[in-house]
Amino acid sequence: MTNTSATPISAGMAGVAFLLGGTVMISINDMLMKALSGDYPLHQLVLIRSLIGVCFSLAIVQAEGGWSVLRTRRPWLHLLRGALIVSANMTYFLALAVLPLADATALFFVAPLLITLLSIPVLGETVGPWRIGAVLVGLAGVILMQRPWASSEVLGASRLVMLLPVFAAFAYALMQIITRKIGAESKASAMAVYIQAIFIVVSLGFGLVAGDGRFVDENSGASLQFLLRAWVWPPSHDWLTLLGLGFCSAIIGYALSQAYRLSDAATVAPFEYAALPLAVFWGWYIWGDLPVIEVWLGMALIAGSGLVVFLRERIRTRRPARGPAKGRY
User: Tens of pLDDT along 148-188?
Assistant: First the structure.
């Protein structure tokens, strides 16, 4: 990993700018997915978004070296990585169909804490007491947001739906662990194409099996309807929104890859939490939703814990080496 002290200020600022741009696109993508969740099946939205997104990604592949960029020595790891991000996206978007945008977004942001935990057994990394403590506090925030004392009627969703963003965060964390293993030998544009291709295959499979809506009816829950509803031909006024979804999908992958390529993770990653106020804004502006006090407190615990983890990472990577290297690297 590049040491922040050696990173030019201009590159660091560019990394932050790309990260913030990608975060804004993520918030718009989530808002559009939630807005369309009452009219379209999830797999149809994913297919349209990915078909548009892969066109942008292939254009970037051509700019970065042509078709040879897509060659890989670890196709199965790329397949596993793609399956995990598909699982993360689908479970998260199913939660969005029911939960307020801010609630789902905040619960998903337990992912950086899960990455820290998973890095211990999977990558053999050393995690100190500060980061372990931060992870525990963040998990307490998740429990607080789940409000285990409240009924499903009060929550407005079943317990399973409340856990979907956490399942999504876990799959996303595993995906990022795999990315660390293959990122050094694969360009970001190639990894984006692989993921878009897997999205296309999975969504087509869903469409062939459930595209006629045979597995769901009007009595099914909102998340199940979003997953298995019959395909519909989009009216003309929705095509611009669907094009926006595809554009967001392509820009998100490119902007985040550029952010982490230009600057080290400890510098740019904390800015991902800009997604939380954006989610609150969209939820209030579009649907009139504002988080309850437990959600506000849970958000603060999760975001604060994540920032502590990033801060400790920044301090550790800046610390001059004295003797044999310790920790991750």
Answer: 888 888 888 888 999 999 999 999 888 878 777 666 667 77
- CA dist 139 → 121, 128, 145, 297 (Å): 18, 17, 10, 12
Residue in 165, 176, 23 with CA at minimum distance from that of residue 105: 165
Residue 158 near residue 221 (C-beta atoms within 8 A): yes
Q: How confident is the model at residue 143 (pLDDT cuts 50, 70, 90)?
A: very high
Given a cut of 60, whether residue 6 has pLDDT beyond it is no
CA distances from residue 191 to 69, 111, 117, 195, 256 in whole angstroms, order as listed: 10, 20, 24, 6, 12
Residue with tokens 């970065």: 64
Q: Quick one: residue 323, left, alpha or beta (phi over 0 = left, psi -120 to 50 = alpha)?
A: left
Q: Within 13 Å, how many C-alpha atoms sit on residue 33's CB side?
A: 37
Encode burial over 1-17: b for 16+ CB neighbours within 10 A, e otherwise.
Answer: eeeeeebeeeebebbbb
DSSP H helices, 211-234, are 222-228
**Alpha-carbon distance 256 to 135, whole Å?**
24
Percent of the chain with pLDDT over 90: 37
3-class SS of residue 183 = coil
Measure Cα distances from 218 to 45, 132, 159, 214 in Å. Answer: 20, 45, 21, 11
- Mention every residue, 6+ apart, whose C-beta is less than 8 A from residue 70: 61, 190, 193, 194
pLDDT at 147 over 80: yes
**Phi, psi values for residue 264, rounded to 5°:** -75, 155
Q: Is the backbone of residue 283 left (phi > 0), alpha (psi -120 to 50) or beta?
A: alpha
